[in-house]
Amino acid sequence: MAIWNEAKECMSRDEMSALQSARLKKIVNNVYHNVEFYRKKMQQCGIEPGDINGIEDLKNLPFTTKADLRDNYPFGLFAVPKSQIVRIHASSGTTGKSTVVGYTRKDIDTWCECVARCLTMAGLGKDDVIQVAYGYGLFTGGLGAHYGVEHLGATVVPMSTGNTKKLVNMMIDFGVTGLMCTPSYLMHIAEVIEEMGVRDQIKLRATLNGAEPWTEEMRRQVEEKLGIQAFDIYGLSEIMGPGVANDCIMHSGMHVFEDHFLPEIIDPNTCESLDDNVTGELVFTSLTKEGMPLLRYRTRDLTSLTHEPCECGRTTARLSRFKGRSDDMLIIRGVNVFPSQIEAALLSINGTTPNYQIIVDREGTLDSLQVRVEVEEKFFSDEIRELEKLTKQISHTIQQAIGLATQVKLVEPKTIERSDGKAKRVIDNRKFD
Ligand code: DLL
């Protein structure tokens, strides 16, 4: 099995810690002297760069949040003069100002290398033809993936999102073997391939899917549908974009490129560090970023870490599949519910598809939860009894998973709106003001 950068992906834990410590000291010194925001924050905490001697001192550094990025809009957190910034990306979010990220030439090179590592993990190489069907533009998905494919030396087909039939036709005509898009768009592409009856004409082998949470069950379904291997790719604009972590052929967690991004898991309420294999909020410190290095950035993503070496030979820490984001968590009748729990429950049942929507309403003071899910066509042609049996089975399984009674509505295939970017799974009609 090929590894893109064996020296960095397979080093011993001691070597990795030494590298991270040296890089951390450098980055802390850099932000202290070049970013007023960090200098003030560190002064408020009574810390000077000389107090940070290695990763064991990480816990003394202040956190950074999305609000800090917004408050310093647009360029307040840049650590280099604007003349050294060669690219800007931004994410809009649902409220307020965009969060803006700037990259130097070296940052772009690092990003390309990280994406090339991800593609290599998925078994792709320079002989492959890879379609990028993430959105191109301010979103990091399209351009981030694009330049990574070029760096690998493979052939990139910059599809962006939108015309799915054209994408499928080109997949056939160009002999496409790799595809990068969101998991929900991959499901839609699989449906279109089925509708067009061209499954036996595609040469697709591997897909890299991320930018939104998805479950193991969804991965298995889509792999089976297309006869491919689907890999989970993680990233966020504030830290880099796609390519912060990726899962390997063992599919037992996403390897973090720890030589560039130092991960921690904290309790989101107390901010205390948590041990390996305990779920909490993922926090990253940039170790090599020049344009906009961040200290202890709170991602809001909920997952756990392990430092056990992987059977693939890589020694880098791995993240477990994401449970969701702390701000995705719904509180329904006082119970904490993550959409991923509902997805996993749904897809454990034969005949359901990963096309679903969660609708939360409030009647008087009582919250109600409805799950609309598409089921295979045959249930609608079968006797009504079959449909009722399946509805009952699904509500029972969801209730077991989340501890709440749920109204389940089975709908016919292609009733729920498809997305070519991040899917909108939850419609929360409650008013909180
Ligand atoms: O979504 C970057 C990206 C593009 C990653 C393409 C992978 C592929 P943002 O728009 O800043 O950046 O959103 C980042 O998306 O904090 C997670 O909540 C979520 N996310 C990204 N990848 C995954 C994944 C891009 N594999 C936010 N699993 C992150 C679960 C993911 N959630």
Structure, described:
The chain has two domains: 1-325, Rossmann fold (3-Layer(aba) Sandwich), CATH 3.40.50; 330-428, ANL, C-terminal domain (GMP Synthetase, Chain A, domain 3), CATH 3.30.300.30. With 433 residues, the chain is an alpha/beta fold. It starts with 5 loop residues before the first helix and ends in a 5-residue tail after the last strand. Strands 4-3-5-6-7-8-9-14-13 form a nine-stranded mixed beta sheet. It has helices at residues 6-9, 13-34, 36-44, 66-71, 105-121, 140-152, 164-173, 183-196, 216-226, 339-347, 378-381, 384-402; strands at 85-91, 99-104, 129-132, 155-158, 178-181, 206-210, 229-236, 241-247, 254-256, 261-266, 280-286, 297-303, 305-306, 318-319, 324-325, 330-332, 335-337, 352-363, 366-375, 407-411, 426-428. The structure holds 5'-O-[hydroxy(phenylacetyl)phosphoryl]adenosine (DLL). The site of 5'-O-[hydroxy(phenylacetyl)phosphoryl]adenosine has 21 residues, from helix 6, strand 7, strand 8 and strand 12.
Structure keywords:
nine-stranded mixed β-sheet, Rossmann fold, four-stranded antiparallel β-sheet, 12 helices, alpha/beta, about 425 residues, 2 domains, binds 5'-O-[hydroxy(phenylacetyl)phosphoryl]adenosine, GMP Synthetase, Chain A, domain 3
CATH top level assignment of the largest domain: Alpha Beta
Mean pLDDT: 95
How many DSSP helices? 12
CATH superfamily of the largest domain: ANL, N-terminal domain
State the low-pLDDT regions, or none.
none
User: Any idea what the CATH architecture of the largest domain is?
Assistant: 3-Layer(aba) Sandwich
Bound small molecules, by name, code or SMILES, are: 5'-O-[hydroxy(phenylacetyl)phosphoryl]adenosine
Instruction: Assign the structural class, choosing from mainly alpha, mainly beta, alpha/beta, alpha+beta, or little secondary structure.
Output: alpha/beta
CATH topology category name of the largest domain: Rossmann fold
- What is the global morphology? globular
Rg computed from alpha carbons, rounded to a whole number of angstroms? 22 Å
**Intertermini distance:** 55 Å
Q: How many structural domains does the protein architecture include? A: 2
Helical amount: 25-40%
Report the major sheet.
9 strands, mixed
